[in-house]
Every structure is written in C-alpha cells, then in structure tokens.
Design goal:
Chain lengths: 167, 252
C-alpha cells in the first residue's frame, strides 16, 4: 500500500480532529493547536505535535490516541514527532474552541493578553465569569486544577471557576 | 573536552536541577498549607519534571549511546548529578520552601531568558518553553515573599531566617568551569556572570518590597560542577530511585 495515493493531508487532519482533550473533552487536539504538521510518505505518516506545558500529562495519551485513531483508519505505520519550537501559545486555540470552553464552564484565555509581566502582575484585567457573564471576578490562585488553568471566583454569583491561562 | 562532552554535561545540569527541585516540590503533595497552595506547589513540580524530561532526553540524544531520561534519572549515583546545591535543600517549613523556590526561580528565569538565544536550536526551543512556566513560578514565590516579609512580626522573622539560611547556597548557582567557557564561545551557553547581575536586581527588588534584608555574602558552599552534594541529596535519591532499582524490569 502507498499512503500517498490513499490519503490526503486534509483527510488525516479530519481523523485527528475527532480526538478530544482528556481533561476538557469538548475540545480536540486540533482545536488546541497541539497538532502541528502532517507529512505523508509512501510507507509512513509522520505526525508532528507540540506540548502545551512541558509536564502536561495528557501528551502521552495524545500520542496513544493518535496512533489508535490512525490504526483504525488503516494507517499502520505512524511516526510521532515532538517539537518545542515555536513554543505552544494559547493564541493557537481557534475561536470555535474558545466558545466551546466558555459553554463548558471554563473561562477562555483572553486573547492577546499574554501576560509577560514577571513580578506582581496578576494576569489579564478582566476575566468574564462563564456562569453569569459578570466581569467582577478575582484571581484566587495562579495554579488551578491542571497546569493550564488558574482558579478564579465570581464576585457576583460567587461561583469559583477555571480560567484557561494565557501563555 | 569535546563540544559534545560539554553539551551533555550542560544538559545534565539543566535537567538534574529541574528534576531534583521537582522531586522536592512533589514532597509537598497533600501536605500544602491550604488546598490552593497544595495544588500550586504540585503544579510547579509537574512543570519542573516536564522540563527535566526534555533536557535529560536531549542529553541522551547528544550522547548517542541510547541512554534515556529514565536511565539518567534512576541509574546514576549522587556524585553523577549536576543539580544546583540550592535545588536539593530540604523543604523545611512553607517559608523555607518559598525562599528556596524564589531564589531559584529568579535564577532559572534569567538563565532561560538568555538561553532562548542559544545557537543550539534545541536548547533555545526548550528554554523558550520552560521560560513561560518559570515566569509563573517566579511570580508565585515573589508574591509569597512579599506577603510573608511584609506580614506579621512572626512571618517576617521566619522568612528572613529562611533567606539567611539558604544564602550560602546561592554562590554555587553562578560558578562556571571549562564546560561553560567552551559553550559560551560557541554561543550555546549563557554567561553566568551576566545572569548574576540580573538575579541580583530581581532579588533586591523583591526583598526590598518585602521589607526584608539581603544577607551579606559570606562563605559560599560550592560543588555542583563536580557533583559534590549535601547529605540530603542521597536521601532524596534513595526514595526517588528505589522502585526502578529494586524492580529493574518495571515499566511505566
């Protein structure tokens, strides 16, 4: 079999767009921007991914899921490549996914607000509460339930919520 | 010494430092003073382990003898580790941990910032990635230094004591040898004399804000470059390495 004749890049991209994030199942690895590149060779398909955070425990699962998915689609020989440059940024999360995050109860990263201040700056000014839409929210902890999230609380509805950190 | 040997050693220094500090932070799991802090400390640990894995894996690639991140982490003895003496200091109380993390995060922040311009593409890429994470670590510990230093009489005294006790391990962060010399010439490594100036500025700024006194430089412990460590590293490794050494055929 020659993969070049059998599959297009878009087809493989679409296969992988069905793999959900294990922690946030409403978004996929394509939504997140973790999937960087697909290269089809006659006897092999090379998938390039990048980690969100260095220690993100989901990366191993992503690799397994990518292989599993492509195997079920008839692609046996899959090579996974991990790249670190350019470093992943929340700006790569697509707009549809930002909306999905919000509906799921996670405040999406405030685009373009990458927080480069090192000392004593507490992230973006306004993070909207995903529950009631209020702008009156406060940071409780820079480190939330996973590496990529911070913990906020809404001052109006009092609900605590996760904010997807902008990096 | 060849450039390859120097690069392996340089990657081990970076990887070991993150690994050992990460293991220390993991010791806080379920022991944090509040739930939010418990999560913060272990999140920092996770970042550090991630960074350690990438640098140790790269050390193995450069060496080209098939050694993996696990081989480096679990099958080397104490004298073969090149982590900073500061990273291995025991956690002590929460203030001791915060003081250690602060002094260390300020170092890693400026080091990784410089390494983003390394002529070794892999080091530059890993440094850019790590920098984003270390920025959060530095902010977390800086805010606590200010809160504790500018807090109650008791918290002020405790965090000042923590800084004073750790100060003698900060000189070791900036010591260089022929590895640095060779790699600086190639544009791969950072000049730690430059990092020291930036570190001084950050440390001074935060201590001042926290109404704390910067200790006077006295005797400085050294040994990182030769793999000479304090007794506490042996105990840390005994715990960390026990399983893969007791059960060599165990897999992840």
């Amino acid at each position: 079999m020659n993969y070049l004749n059998k599959y297009t890049r878009q087809q493989i991209w679409d296969f992988l767009a069905e793999i959900p994030d294990p922690e946030i199942p409403v978004i996929t690895i394509v939504d997140l921007g973790v999937l960087r590149e697909i290269e089809i060779l006659p006897k092999k398909v090379i998938i390039t991914i990048t980690p969100t955070y260095s220690g993100c425990p989901a990366m191993k699962l992503f690799e397994d899921e990518i292989k599993k998915k492509l195997h079920t689609e008839g692609i046996e020989n899959v090579e996974l490549k991990m790249v670190y440059s350019p470093a992943w940024t929340t700006d790569w999360i697509n707009d549809a996914a930002l909306e999905k995050l919000k509906n799921y109860g996670i405040a999406p990263p405030v685009k373009g607000s990458e927080d480069k201040g090192v000392l004593f700056k507490n992230g973006p000014k306004v993070v909207q509460c995903p529950q009631c839409g209020s702008n009156e929210t406060e940071l409780k902890s820079q480190f939330g339930s996973t590496a990529c999230k911070a913990l906020y609380q809404c001052k109006d509805c009092l609900e605590p919520f996760d904010y997807f950190k902008c990096i | 010494m060849t450039q390859q040997d120097a690069l392996i050693n340089y990657c081990l220094r970076l990887g070991d430092t993150s690994l050992i500090l990460g293991q220390r932070m993991a010791e806080w799991t379920s022991n944090g003073p509040t739930l939010e802090e418990d999560i913060a400390l272990t999140n920092i640990s996770l970042d550090l382990f991630g960074q350690a894995r990438t640098f140790l894996t790269y050390a193995g690639e450069v060496e080209g003898k098939g050694r993996t991140e696990d081989d480096f982490a679990y099958h080397r003895n104490e004298r073969e580790f090149y982590n900073t003496l500061l990273s291995e200091r025991p956690n002590g109380h929460f203030g001791d941990t915060i003081a250690r993390n602060f002094l260390h995060a300020a170092f890693l922040y400026h080091l990784y910032s410089a390494l983003t311009k390394s002529k070794d593409d892999k080091i530059a890429a890993l440094a850019s990635k790590s920098l984003k994470e270390v920025t959060y670590h530095l902010r977390h510990s800086s805010e606590w230094i200010v809160r504790l230093g500018d807090g109650t009489v008791e918290s002020h005294q405790k965090i000042q004591d923590s800084i004073n006790d750790l100060w003698m391990f900060t000189g070791d962060l900036f010591v260089m040898n022929e590895v640095d010399e060779l790699l600086i010439k190639e544009g791969i490594a950072a000049n730690l004399n430059e990092i020291k100036k930036l570190w001084d500025n950050t440390v001074n700024e935060v201590l001042q804000r926290a109404t704390l006194k910067r200790p006077i430089d006295g005797f400085m412990q050294k040994g990182r470059l030769e793999g000479r460590h304090a007794e506490c590293l042996g105990h840390l490794l005994a715990e960390m390495q026990f399983l893969p050494r007791a059960y060599p055929d165990a897999t992840w």
